[in-house]
Amino acid sequence: MKNEMHLQFSALSQNESFARVAVAAFIAQLDPTMDELTEIKTVVSEAVTNAIIHGYENDPKGIVYISVFIEDRIVEMTIKDEGVGIKDIEEARQPLFTTKPELERSGMGFTIMENFMDEVEVHSQPGSGTEIRLRKLLSKSKMLCN
Ligand SMILES: Nc1ncnc2c1ncn2[C@@H]1O[C@H](COP(=O)(O)OP(=O)(O)OP(=O)(O)O)[C@@H](O)[C@H]1O
Ligand SMILES: [Mg+2]
């Protein structure tokens, strides 16, 4: 069965934990392992943090959009902002690359997303924003195998 949910919220750092918990609650119906749930929550945090601090440069008038689609054991998520966008996507995805070293950013957000998800697509245009598409196949549910 297909199922989907959509969220939008102000670009405020206190909404990062809300987004992480809301996505985890939606995914819970697939009976993921604790590791899978932790990985998905971490990835949502990284992408939402990026939208807030890089995309909108902490302007709370910005809106962050999340969509989650589930079908069978596949989880697809998009996390989108309408902020500044990324000039060079390939460079931004490199481990340790950051444009905000002064904020003690380590440049590991995209690397974490790639490690925890099966597919990571970055779509971005300077001046119009960034959309991250993430895909993960969950392991077989305990409830389904006996
Ligand atoms: N939504 C976004 N809008 C604009 N630029 C972005 C966005 N997401 C990422 N970037 C750019 O890509 C770079 C790399 O992102 P990444 O998440 O890997 O590292 P970081 O956010 O700088 O550091 P960390 O995630 O380790 O705190 C950022 O420094 C920023 O320049
Ligand atoms: Mg980051």
UniProtKB/TrEMBL annotation:
**What biological-process terms (Gene Ontology) are attached?**
asexual sporulation; negative regulation of sporulation resulting in formation of a cellular spore; sporulation resulting in formation of a cellular spore
Q: Which InterPro entries match?
A: Anti-sigma-factor_SerPK, Anti-sigma_F, HATPase_C_sf, HATPase_dom
NCBIfam families documented for this protein: spIIAB (TIGR01925)
Keyword list, A-Z: ATP-binding, Kinase, Nucleotide-binding, Serine/threonine-protein kinase, Sporulation, Transferase
Q: Which domain of life is it from?
A: Bacteria
Describe the family membership recorded for this protein in Swiss-Prot or TrEMBL: Belongs to the anti-sigma-factor family.
Name the Enzyme Commission number(s) assigned to this protein.
Answer: 2.7.11.1
Domain Histidine kinase/HSP90-like ATPase residue range list = 35-140
What is the role of the protein in this entry?
Binds to sigma F and blocks its ability to form an RNA polymerase holoenzyme (E-sigma F). Phosphorylates SpoIIAA on a serine residue. This phosphorylation may enable SpoIIAA to act as an anti-anti-sigma factor that counteracts SpoIIAB and thus releases sigma F from inhibition.
Query: Know the name of this protein?
Result: Anti-sigma F factor
Catalysed transformations (reactions): L-seryl-[protein] + ATP = O-phospho-L-seryl-[protein] + ADP + H(+); L-threonyl-[protein] + ATP = O-phospho-L-threonyl-[protein] + ADP + H(+)
**Quick check: keyword Iron in the entry?**
no
Enzyme category, top tier = transferase
* Keyword Kinase carried by entry: yes
Q: Could you state a single Gene Ontology molecular function term?
A: protein serine kinase activity
